[in-house]
Design brief:
heterodimer; A: 170 residues; mainly alpha; 1% strand; disordered N terminus; B: 318 residues; alpha+beta; Immunoglobulin-like; 5-stranded mixed beta sheet; 14% helix
């Protein structure tokens, strides 16, 4: 045994339950914004957390497992075909479980996030992460799986497009 | 109103909406079958409560007879405790002045210095026990995530540095820690309710497996006489590329599994299956013809024999 090279145990992984409690509502919010669906947002988030739970042995050692979950949600929310398929599935579940969907947003807020969804996919993801989660560009890049400069471009173009659609100053 | 102000307003609105919504997901990201052990545990707890309740009822004293004397409304004179004859004395030297203690007054031990006086509860100066049951000193791991467990005095807290272990009411404890490559000294401290501490340590070794340290595959040994089908081969999976610019995009997955067992690779955009060879090695090229561009998605490799699985991310980057 290399007594002279001993190192202290460095860290402790987070428990999945704690991670879930801290992040779940935030991720539901992201799913709601990107999918626009009151019915399937929670399901999208739940699917992402189930995937995270299966991978928790690995994810718990990551610096930011929340980024992984957000990437899954962002990817699952993108395609309109998959959105509608998820919506159908969620509606079936809602009917079976007799549970309430998320509350409806105020019309002004719904209009804003509707415009965000209408942006090109990467731009809408970057905008959602930037505004909804106050993420710095570096983290947005990590979540989207692109370089920081690419994320900056998505964000810049997204803001410009969004301002035009809303008729406000960027 | 500019864009940032509008966004702030919409964000606040959305957060309030989600916060007020009755989220129904009852389980922290777990599939239903993973709740079975918890449900059984809950049933066990309920059964224990029932047993305790039955025992309590059985040992409980019989219901007292109704009070009939004195009748309601009788005025009771001030209670004067009876004095036993043997306690009566005329020797006033044994009497002393009784002074009421105020809050915060120090209480000196009434016995010899450092010992408890008669009738007092002795201060707990005994350090709690602390035993590390697993892992044992010198144990070598090929994984960096290791559960440490042991026993301590019931009610004591166990910590490894700034991380607190889960301690059961009976004093058994456990904690998962991440090892650094090489030798690791894990130092645990048990602290009881009186603040007494005990420290114990264990030294373990983390040796990275070959799969973790290199991405090159090695040719299987020619001499396989010692390898039989009954040998257990741990499931492992690795990814070669992660992204692919060509169309249709593809990736290659490889690893180990029980010889002859099936490994399936699945994703939303393509998959395949393969059988592990006699040495337990497997490799599979998977195409994702429907994969969208620049979107990472999950690809899962799973051992059909053991049910173990590992997921990867892949993106088509034309």
């Amino acid at each position: 045994m290399r007594q002279m090279e001993e190192t202290q145990v460095v860290s402790r992984p987070e428990r999945f339950d704690d991670f879930y409690r801290r992040e779940f509502r935030l991720v539901v919010g992201l799913a709601y914004v990107l999918s626009g669906s009151r019915n399937s947002a929670e399901d999208l988030a739940q699917e992402a957390f189930m995937a995270a739970h299966r991978e928790w042995d690995k994810l718990q050692t990551y610096d930011n497992p929340g980024a992984w979950v957000r990437r899954v949600v962002a990817n699952k929310s993108v395609s309109s075909f998959r959105r509608s398929a998820t919506e159908m599935k969620a509606l079936a579940k809602l009917a079976a479980r007799r549970i309430e969907p998320l509350n409806e947003m105020e019309p002004d807020d719904a209009e804003f996030w509707g415009h965000v969804r209408d942006l090109p996919r990467r731009q809408s993801q970057a905008i959602a992460l930037f505004y909804l989660e106050d993420r710095p560009v570096e983290e947005i890049a990590r979540i989207l799986g692109c370089t920081t400069s690419t994320a900056k471009v998505h964000l810049h173009k997204g803001r410009a497009n969004l301002a035009t659609r809303l008729g406000v100053e960027a | 109103m500019n864009l940032d102000e509008r966004a702030r307003q919409a964000t606040a609105g959305l957060r309030a909406t989600v916060a007020a919504s009755p989220l129904s997901s009852p389980i922290p990201g777990m599939a239903r079958w993973e709740w079975v052990p918890r449900a059984l545990a809950a049933v066990g707890t309920a059964a224990a409560i029932v047993v305790v309740a039955i025992l309590t009822i059985q040992v409980a004293p019989p219901t007292p007879a109704p009070i009939t004397q004195p009748p309601d409304g009788t005025v009771i004179p001030e209670f004067v405790p009876p004095v036993e004859d043997s306690l009566l004395t005329t020797d006033t030297t044994e009497l002393s002045t009784v002074t009421s203690l105020s809050e915060g007054d120090p209480i000196a031990p009434s016995g010899p210095e450092g010992t408890a006086g008669p009738g007092e509860v002795p201060a707990d100066t005994e350090a709690p026990s602390l035993v590390i049951l697993s892992p044992v000193n010198g144990q070598v791991f090929e994984t960096d995530v290791v559960r440490f467990s042991g026993t301590t005095e019931p009610g004591a807290a166990v910590r490894a540095g700034r991380y607190e272990a889960d301690v059961a009411p009976d004093g058994t404890w456990s904690i998962v820690l991440i090892l650094s490559p090489g030798s690791n000294r894990a130092v645990f401290t048990a602290t009881d309710e009186a603040g007494n501490e005990t420290t114990a340590q264990v030294v373990v070794d983390y040796k990275r497996s070959v799969a973790d340290t290199t991405t090159t595959t090695t040719k299987p040994k020619e001499d396989t006489t010692t390898t039989t089908k009954a040998d257990f081969v741990e499931f492992s999976a690795n990814q070669v590329y992660g992204t692919c610019p060509s169309s249709p995009p593809f990736d290659v997955f490889w690893g180990t599994a029980q010889p002859g067992s099936k490994v399936i690779v699945t994703s939303d955009y393509g998959g395949g299956s393969v059988f592990a060879n006699a040495e337990g090695g497997w490799e599979l090229r998977v195409e994702f013809p429907e994969a969208p561009a620049d979107v990472f998605f999950l690809v899962t490799a799973k051992s059909v024999a053991t049910g173990r699985a590992k997921s990867f991310e892949f993106a088509y980057k034309p």
